[in-house]
Write a structure and sequence with these properties.
Elements (H helix, E strand, L loop, with lengths): L8 H54 L2 H11 L5 E11 L2 E11 L13 H86 L1
Antiparallel strand pairs: 1-2
Helix pairs in contact: 1-3
Length: 204
Amino acid sequence: MAERIRLNKVSLREQKQKMAMYERFLPALEARKQQLIMQLAIIRANIRTQKEFLETTREEIRSWASLYWDVERALRFYIIVREIRCASRNIAGLKIREFKEVVFDNPGYSLFRTPYSFDTVIKRTREAISLREGIKILEEQEQILLEGFRKTSQRINLYEKRLIPQCREAVRRVSVYLQDQQAAAVGVAKVAKRLSEEASYYTD
């Protein structure tokens, strides 16, 4: 439902103040939108790079199929994820998680009872898991920034296409009305003055 505009000086001042406020906020929203666009580009590039690293690591692991058969039963105890450590970061007013590391359970083992390749298999498998978890966090960042971009774009559109034009039209309408009222008042005053002068002429 459209706001009913009061045709008086108070309303005129209020509409001008609202329009000035919207116009003042608009550049900040535009700057936020540009910042989100840049950060989204960086995150998407990181996702692509990390996915390439992960695929390379998986290809390497697949080439070690025979080694995995030798250590499979023991390996599962060394790739249990205990914790995914993240830091908090602020981007354009949005709080996101930033991946730091994966902490694995780390039971001890005997160098004499495990194959020579065991250390390498553990290391590369953990690297693959860490890459996978890091990509998940990057994709989470992407979704948060996309939602922030969507809301910022909606706010900009609201200001540019609705609120500012509405205020501008309201200012125009009230200004025209007040000018007409002033002109009418001047006209009435002139008529009253002329009638008064004519009345004085006839009474003299």
